[in-house]
Amino acid sequence: MPLLSPTQKAEVNRQNAAKSTGPTSVEGKSQSRANAFKHGFAGGGVVLGEDEIRAVELHTAAWVKELGVTSMIKYEIIKTGVAAWVLSQSCMVRIARLSALQAKCTDATWEVEHEIEAWDLGQKLQRNPAKYIKKLRATKHGCQWLIGSWRDLLLVALRPGRWKPEHTERALSLLGRALTDRDLIEEFTIPSFTPDRAAAEAEIATAIRAEIQSLTDLGNKLDPADEGARALAREGVFAHPSREVARLERYLARLTKTFENAVKLIKDTPRRPQDTRRSRLLLPVEEREEPPVEAEPPPNPAAVAPAEPLNKTEVAAVIMPTNTLAEPVVRAARRAMVAVPTDVKVVNSVFQARNRHERRRLEALARKQGKA
Question: 4, 86, 225, 313: which has the highest count of C-beta atoms within 10 A?
Fold first, then answer.
């Protein structure tokens, strides 16, 4: 097929796009989106079946009525959580049905399934012998597969002149030896210069028989564990569930997490914005109308100033601080032996001052009145 230029490719794309671009209406898009619908677990509630839609509407209305929700945000959170909860219930029902079906077929398919699993592991030996040999030796059926492979090599070793380098590679793989270390290993190898090839082949056959016996003993030890797993499988409990069940369990975990997040959001979201501390701080302060203050006539300095200066005891009796902010004024008055009369508004202003500059101004005003 000749290569097309960019212009020709663009023309071909335009022609293909003119033929069909998919649905354009809302109804067509929704129908097209539901064409591959199976159970809706993967979508998280985007596409639901008819039964799930009715259940979500029913439970959403019940939750909204129970919680007294009037906010649209909370309504959407509740709807998302209810959809995840409904789907999780359906997912659990499907997992239970599949597990029950698998439990019924346990006696008929147990041996075949585990033999196939061991065969799949055996096909991966060339990738990483050390890893997959450990997996095979951990199960009864894996040991049986290894025994069969060793027996095939034993038949080759018992025939004079049939043992070749590829058989050595196979034997080292069945032992779990790394590929990089095989050049230094002379096990299961017959040198080309050996004077007695038959004796070397006999030694290889003896080593293979010893390995077969070791695997047979290991399989006998693993047999009770296999029977226990089989008994649990009859009750619906599987150490290694099927792929479909494992996939549904992942969907269930995701839906459960979505439901828990929705519940947490509903609890953390306040009913009204005023309920939070930040919203209370941001609320406008109501302006209250203060009654008008009548202007008092200024005090007469002659009537205010005492005839004689007061001593420290008299000053302390006159100035009784009710606020810690007035202590600097009291100390200054005591040092100056100045009497601050109680009928002057300045004294009350000093006690009610809230900043440093205001206190300094009122102290200076008190000193002036005392000198006067």
Answer: 86
244, two tokens: 């479909």
Are 344 and 319 in contact, with CB atoms under 8 Å apart? no
Instruction: Indicate whether 120 and 159 sit together in one domain.
Output: yes
Q: Is residue 117 part of a domain?
A: yes
Q: Which amino acid, residue 230? A: R
pLDDT of the residue at 304:
45
Residue finishing a domain among 195, 215, 239? 239
Contact indicator for 344, 366 with CB cutoff of 8 Å: no
Is residue 121 packed enough to be buried (19+ CB in 10 Å), middle (13-18) or exposed (0-12)? buried
Q: Which of 341, 342, 348 is nearest to 370 (CA)?
A: 341
- The first and second tokens of residue 270, run together, are 């306040």
- Residue 243 CA to residue 40 CA, distance in Å, equals 18
Structure tokens at 186: 């002379």
- pTM confidence score: 0.50
- Surface-to-core class of residue 113, CB atoms within 10 Å of its CB (0-12 exposed, 13-18 middle, 19+ buried): middle
The pLDDT of residue 330 is: 52
How much is the pLDDT for 56?
A: 86
Question: What is the model's pLDDT at position 244?
Answer: 84
Asked if residue 358 belongs to a domain, the reply is: yes
Q: Please, what sign has the CA dihedral across residues 221, 224, 228, 230? A: positive
Domain containing 182 equals 108-239
Report residue 165 as tokens. Answer: 């380098």
Spatial separation of the C-alpha atoms in residues 30 and 26, rounded to whole Å: 6
The residue among 364, 369, 367, 310 whose CA lies nearest residue 343 is: 369
129 neighbors 185 (Cβ within 8 angstroms): no
Q: Which residues of the chain have pLDDT under 50?
A: 273-288, 303-307, 309-325, 337-348, 350-351, 353
| Structure confidence at residue 176 (pLDDT) | 87
Q: How far apart are alpha carbons 157 and 189 in whole angstroms?
A: 11
